[in-house]
Amino acid sequence: MSTETADLARKARDASRKLQLLSSAKRADLLRAVASALERREDEIQAANDEDMARAAAANDVDDALLQRLKLKPGKVKQLADGARAIANMDEPIGKPLSAMELAKGLTLTKVTAPLGVLLIIFESRPDALPQIASLALRTGNGLLLKGGKEAASSNAKLREVIVDEFEAFGIPKECVCLIEGREAVADLLKLDDVIDLVIPRGSNSLVTYIQNNTKIPVLGHADGVVHMYVDADADLDMASKLAIDSKIDYPAACNALETLLIHDSLVATGGAAELMTALRAAGVELFGGPRGEKELKLPPAPALRHEYGCPACSVELVSSMDNAIDYIHANGSAHTDCIITSNQATADEFISRVDSACVFHNASTRFSDGFRFGLGAEVGISTSRIHARGPVGVEGLLTTRCLLRGTGQICDKDKGVTFTHKKLPLPKKEGLFKPGLVQKVSGAIALVANTVIVFKALFGRK
Amino acid sequence: MSTETADLARKARDASRKLQLLSSAKRADLLRAVASALERREDEIQAANDEDMARAAAANDVDDALLQRLKLKPGKVKQLADGARAIANMDEPIGKPLSAMELAKGLTLTKVTAPLGVLLIIFESRPDALPQIASLALRTGNGLLLKGGKEAASSNAKLREVIVDEFEAFGIPKECVCLIEGREAVADLLKLDDVIDLVIPRGSNSLVTYIQNNTKIPVLGHADGVVHMYVDADADLDMASKLAIDSKIDYPAACNALETLLIHDSLVATGGAAELMTALRAAGVELFGGPRGEKELKLPPAPALRHEYGCPACSVELVSSMDNAIDYIHANGSAHTDCIITSNQATADEFISRVDSACVFHNASTRFSDGFRFGLGAEVGISTSRIHARGPVGVEGLLTTRCLLRGTGQICDKDKGVTFTHKKLPLPKKEGLFKPGLVQKVSGAIALVANTVIVFKALFGRK
User: How close B224 comes to chain A (CA, Å)?
Assistant: First the structure.
């Protein structure tokens, strides 16, 4: 491994610790300074983006989708600056008390949120991802190693420069946000599981799968989005058609787009199945059959039971019951987002309580499975991992916890050193409000008052 | 890979889904049935344990510590049964609402706790770990693959039998709790990252390290516990001695035992450093020096800056300031538990806010870093991982989350399908209390009343 790459990661860790030393207000001010710099230096940023666009346009096989993602459209820089300001204005994410307990007299435990540490973010050609991620990382006290797509090299370098140029005034080393270049450097970084705490790949499924297969560092992301929609016997068929179409057509390549439509058997005889298929086809969706769909609905065979089309196409399969539908989803889904369409509340409740997926929906488009739509403010990514963070992940995915214990000299002595009280305490508004010394003084004062009352009653009280 | 092992894991997953179908009350009843069975069949369990003890005693090199761990002492089975009952009585851990939000009119999102899925637990010679882990897993709806030490083979087989014999009456397949035998089977299981959700190794550091290096499945555990105690210039020296001794001597091989004592420079001239060292030596602790400790305190050199002794010995090093102490801890610690001894509240607050470890203590023994002492009820393990769960981990380490969205036919339509309200809702007591249909009916009724009032006013009201 190149020692240079490892050094960079360690410097990011050290810089992140300096960032964490800043007060919440200072970290917010830093973000506001970054926002102003983005606006002030918009011309430079646009010029760098023009370079990338020109280079991409001059390439032999110009890909329109790529150009779309690459382009910083008018108003975009302003929007990124506003985004940074919104993140500056959010509640302080670090040191937020999650639980508090008196373990024994004068011994108080508080569990608080803490920065995760150093994040490696790998994103493809969208340069606007860089300031968004950087804003989130700065607010949460995390160091960043960023690897962008080579098509956006000039934009990314300029955006990073504009951001880190603001660091000096706050005493933060520029290495707090590093830009990584080249595949070899990424391969090196993926080995640094002692320095990097989380990898977030933002891009194609193949990128996510490659990362997951090549590192011991935890990866936040999803390799597959094999999304199911089950149309129950009691479904409103108009609603079902509308939701199936939106789930597939709104953005066919998205991870939350519909891939398999499961239809209850009873809808074959009633003509409901045919109605659904006609509506989907009319919306431009190509249909393939699961084992039963192929035979009984005369559909061409789907490539596999578990298949992500990524285009306006989906599989259709028949199921004999909701149990059958749930088994099918558990067997062939990717536990990303699965949905039931039914007017029967009891059926919906059972589906929702039983389907073991990150997102389980009733009578809504699967496309709602998204951080912005879920109201998270900023989306770090969607996770199909079951640990740490699952589903659309906001700022909490960039945080971990610390347990803070404040004592007054207590020893353990094989659990005979203290008498455990394990008394749950109300959550303090801010960490650091529990001072066992102070609590003791207050309890002492209360005890003194109480004793005085007892003595007073004993002396003067009536029986 | 043996398909038999993979089959076992998949059967555990299927069985766990059946377990999740039971109501909370039924899952608690199952645990109570297990508790009664443990008591009823105590003789069988003791006989199996006697077999293990006899086999261990007959081995060539009898290890006293092993025999201690292996033995189910009188009263232990009763204690395990009581533990199972306590876990039965705890609040329902599944489906607990964590947040709730109205995304748009009639579209409600609830985030709830959910079982993690299938856990692989690898524990060494303590057979009492089996019923404890099984009780936690049954309450939280998780499937279990258990690999115990071969010394406890008879005890483990009997304990597992007693537990799973109760399953039939509840319709749960016995494979919900599987016992794995042989190293090969473990190696096979560690490859099943698509079926197993979490590995929890309970045992020596070398076991944990081996597991961490040989699987892509997330591992809950700590490979090192390089615990520091920093004695500040303003420390109460009597307290410091007492806490340093307890932190090292209470259980020298524990992960939360003291390994490095950092002493502020000023305590050399005052004689405080000598006092601390004398007290530690008098308590039977052998002292080794860090680079400065070796030179200035005339101590034999420590094996390394970062070293876990695991016996009544520790390193002693001098530091020039708290900053210096924190840098030393960040550079050489394992972010498990680190502690400051000082009477200066401001110094303590700064140490606590800056040290980036799972547990950060002030004026308390590092031995308190433990699930039972932290009041978690049952400890799943102590994690030095920064993601998912950090520090002593209770039942929450066996849970993940699901996002449940209840709609009334909403489509996304490139975010023009609904008007987002993103209104935070009060947490429902229980998942399933939000029924958008119901909310709509209620709103409808309110609107009807409101309209009636308006019409009534228009017809009969005075101006």
Answer: 12
Strands A97-104 and A107-115, bridge-based pairing: antiparallel
Total of domains in chain B? 3
Please give the pLDDT value at position B447.
Answer: 37
- The tokens describing A160, both together, are 């990073």
Q: CB neighbours of B118 closer than 8 A, spacing ≥ 6?
A: B9, B12, B13, B16, B142, B143, B144, B145, B195, B196, B197
Per the structure, the complete domain to which residue B462 belongs is given by: 433-463
The pLDDT of residue B443 is above 80: no
CA separation for the pair B69, B149 (Å, rounded): 11
**What is residue A174's DSSP assignment?**
G
What is this structure's pTM?
Answer: 0.85
Residue B211 has phi, psi (to 5 degrees) of -65, -50
- CATH code where residue B79 lies: 3.40.605.10
Asked whether residue A301 falls in the same domain as residue A154, the answer is no
pLDDT band of B432, cuts 50, 70, 90:
low
Q: Is the pLDDT of residue B248 over 80?
A: yes
* Range 242-261 of B in CB contact (< 8 A) with A: 242-243, 246, 250-251
Do residue A171 and residue A88 come from a single domain? yes
Lowest mean pLDDT among A237-241, A357-361, B19-23, B427-431: B427-431
Are A89 and A168 contained in the same domain?
yes
Asked whether residue A346 falls in the same domain as residue A198, the answer is no
Q: Find the CB nearest A109 among B21, B374, B436.
A: B374
pLDDT digits (tens, 9 = 90+) for B178-217: 999 888 888 999 999 888 999 988 877 788 888 888 888 8
ipTM attached to this prediction:
0.85
DSSP string, B260-326: EEEEETHHHHTSHHHHHHHHHHHTT-EEEE-HHHHHHS-PPBPS-SS----SSEEEEEEESSHHHHH
pLDDT of residue A432 exceeding 70, the answer is: no
Selected residue of B362, B372, B425 to mutate for chain A interface (largest A Cβ count, 10 A): B362
Tens digits of residue pLDDT in A124-149: 778 988 998 899 999 999 999 999 88
| B271-284 pLDDT per residue, tens | 999 999 999 999 99
At residue A391, φ and ψ (nearest 5 deg) are 80, -165
What does DSSP say about strands A337-341 and A177-179: parallel, antiparallel, or unpaired? unpaired
DSSP state of B180: -
Q: Measured between alpha carbons, how far is A410 from B346 in angstroms, rounded to an integer? A: 20
* Bridge partners of residue B402, in order along the sequence: B112
Task: Report yes or no: B287 and B299 within 8 Å, Cβ to Cβ.
Answer: yes
**Residue B139: pLDDT over 50:** yes
Q: pLDDT value at position A442?
A: 40
pLDDT band at B1 (very low <50, low <70, confident <90, very high): low
Greatest mean pLDDT among A57-71, A207-221, B406-420 lies in B406-420
A402 interfaces chain B, CB cutoff of 8 Å? yes
The reply to whether A385 falls in a domain is no
* Distance, CA of A197 to CA of A199 (rounded, Å): 7
Q: Which helix (H) or strand (E) holds B366?
A: none
Q: Mark which of A347, A379, A411 sits at the end of a domain.
A: A379
Amino acid at A68: Q
**At how many degrees (to 10) do helices A3-21 and B345-354 cross?**
140
Chain B contact for A414 (CB, 8 A cutoff): yes
**Same domain, residue pair A77 and A156:** yes
Count Cβ neighbours within 10 Å for each residue of B213-248 and write b for 16 or more, e otherwise.
Answer: eebebbbbbbbbbbbbbbbbbebbbebbbbbbbbbb
Strand B313-319 with B107-115, pairing: unpaired
Q: Which helix (H) or strand (E) holds B405?
A: strand B399-410
Q: Please tell me whether residues B191 and B234 are part of one structural domain.
A: no
Q: Is A211 on the interface with B (CB under 8 A)?
A: no
| Chain B partners within 8 Å of A251 (Cβ) | 414
